[in-house]
Design a protein that fits this description.
By secondary structure, the chain is an alpha/beta fold. About 35% of the residues lie in helices and about 20% in strands.
């Protein structure tokens, strides 16, 4: 599958810290979404100001990540905790259930074309995708079923 496979680390149930919402909110609330967009824009402006133009000019020259990381798209998995300076250092691949089967192209790109030296596959506890794949998920939307179909539980 991979031309190069310098190193691989398979970690199951690595990230177990629950995330707590900063504010209580109603899911799907347009006002909450609009406020969050403002927060993102403010955070991004502060980040850009803190790092300065030279930082971004160096990143624009290309990427040479040390690791390709496959992890779950679960919002509680904080992949930025893997590296204090992940910009240009981690090629991130996130999907439900931290699967290679549904992200093989992205993983191969990170390993074979970006020449990352390390492939990390990081799982976490209480994964909804794993729970769903263990039961009857026939009522879910087709794209979700397609991803869950690739999860094989022993």
């Amino acid at each position: 599958m991979f031309k190069k496979f310098s190193a691989a680390v398979f970690a199951a149930s690595v990230i177990t810290t629950p995330a707590f919402a900063h504010d209580e909110h109603e899911h799907g609330d347009a006002a909450v979404a609009q406020q969050f967009i403002k927060t993102i824009m403010s955070t991004e402006a502060k980040y850009a100001h803190h790092h300065g133009a030279r930082f971004f000019q160096n990143l624009a020259k290309g990427q040479h990540p040390r690791a390709t990381v496959v992890t779950c798209s679960d919002s509680r998995v904080q992949s930025n905790m893997l590296d204090k300076t992940p910009e240009g250092d981690l090629f991130m691949v996130r999907n439900i259930g931290n699967q290679i089967a549904t992200s093989a192209g992205s993983v191969e790109y990170g390993v074979n074309h970006l020449n990352s030296s390390l492939l990390l596959i990081i799982g976490h506890s209480s994964c909804g995708a794993i729970k769903a794949a263990s039961g009857d998920y026939s009522t879910l939307e087709d794209p979700i079923k397609k991803e869950l179909d690739t999860i094989k539980i022993a």
